[in-house]
Design brief:
binds magnesium ion, binds cytidine-5'-triphosphate, alpha/beta, two-stranded antiparallel ribbon
């Protein structure tokens, strides 16, 4: 692979999960949406939004199969085996970003993210914010669990966090070095743990995560409507 320089934007597309909640035999990222694998759509969105290189982190036994999902990008896409937890997969991806100055971390499970969201995140990092996340408002009422009962909370004080999340490469490296045994659901939270301020930009409902079977139905309908 050609070496990456400070001007490069490397996107780590984490696709190594199995998709237990979706309950299919194929790994979630390999499932097709309107004929195109989820991970292929995610990679396309990264390039369309301004990434210059993409590292796809695939389930260990599926690396060769996943390599066939990106026939047109040549050396701009590399596929590597992932780890047990999402954060392990990101850490393994970070070993392949060379000297890239900006790194995006994106869930393959968000295949319909609009490229303008990717661009928005990159621009915010370029403008000097070391950790940037796209967010959307919560639509449901929310309650906090208190032992055997629940208490209503003000939903306007909560935001739903999407990907791609964007980082200064050195910041994300430091955050991952600090992780230890702790489990994190995303990379911005790791940055916060080392006192890096996390900046939000508006996300988009199309960046929703495919988690359960109904999400797949929705994605299929949307993707068919677009093609
Ligand atoms: N992921 C990963 N490596 C892991 C676990 C998750 O790269 N060890 C990736 C998934 O492939 C997905 C993203 O992280 O793109 C978000 O995770 P999630 O939606 O939870 O996907 P899965 O872990 O595959 O699904 P489930 O939790 O239902 O098994
Ligand atoms: Mg998971």
């Amino acid at each position: 692979m050609n070496s990456l320089g400070p001007e490069d934007v490397a996107a780590i597309v984490v696709a190594a999960g199995s998709g237990v909640r979706l309950g299919r035999e194929l790994p979630k990222a390999a499932i097709e949406i309107a004929g195109v694998p989820m991970v292929t759509r995610a990679v396309q969105a990264m390039f369309s939004g301004g990434a210059t290189r993409v590292i796809v982190v695939a389930p260990e036994a599926w690396v060769e199969r996943f390599e066939q999902f990106f026939p047109t990008y040549g050396e701009r896409v590399s596929v590597i085996p992932g780890g047990l937890l999402r954060q392990d997969s990101v850490r393994l991806g970070l070993e392949h970003i060379g000297e890239a100055g900006i790194v995006l971390v994106h869930d393959a499970a968000r295949p319909l993210v609009p490229p303008f969201i990717v661009d928005r995140v990159i621009e915010a990092v370029r403008d000097g914010d070391p950790a940037v996340i796209p967010v959307v408002a919560e639509a449901d009422s929310l309650r906090r669990i208190r032992r055997s009962w629940t208490v209503a909370v003000d939903r306007s004080t909560f935001l739903r966090v999407q990907t791609p999340q964007g980082f200064e490469a050195d910041t994300l490296r430091k955050a991952h070095e600090n992780v230890g045994d702790k489990e994190y659901t995303d990379d911005a939270t790791m940055c916060e743990a080392i006192d890096i301020p996390v900046v939000t930009v508006p996300g988009d409902s199309l960046a929703f995560k495919i988690t359960e079977p109904m999400d797949l139905v929705l994605a299929e309908v949307i993707a068919r409507g677009e093609s």
